Amino acid sequence: MKEFFSVEEVAKLLNISHSGVLYQINTGKLKAIQVGKIYVITQEDFGDFLKHHREAKKKVKKSTQTKLKFD
Prior knowledge:
The chain has 71 residues and is an alpha+beta fold.
């Protein structure tokens, strides 16, 4: 049996707003199924989103720190 999450549940889990989750859905970063006027997210799709999000964070390199010289 598949488990589904509502937009509100995903928002709470990610600690972002309802509209933030909708933005992720509308940009295609988070897969969701529209049922009438609401969206539901499968557990598998949510897991894929988390995995991809974590990988993207790892790819972002930290900026090099500026070294100051005092003469």
